[in-house]
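Action item from last week, closing it out:
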Amino acid sequence: MDIAVVGVGIRVTFRRETTVCQDLRLVLGAVAPTPMRARGSERMAAGRELDDVLIEEISRMASEEARPISDVRSTAGYRKSLVTALTRRVLLAARDWAEKGGRR
């Protein structure tokens, strides 16, 4: 059985044919006693263009919202840095998808 060090999942809705975020749901796993929503990060995205600057802001905010512990698998600091990196990665992928018209 594998146990995740960190997990990040999103659901994002874009305005039609744009990369303007209508709604974002951002869930973090293994950084709190139970999976948690990063609600401050979600609010930050509403109605804004998902550009590089906003993606960095959301990624940092998600890391600040996380409440990881240190254990045998990882330190709290490493988990926070993973939240930043993984949030950035999923948001960039979502924006790329939207730029291609919602097709792969």
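Closing note: Helices lie at 39-45, 52-65, 76-99.
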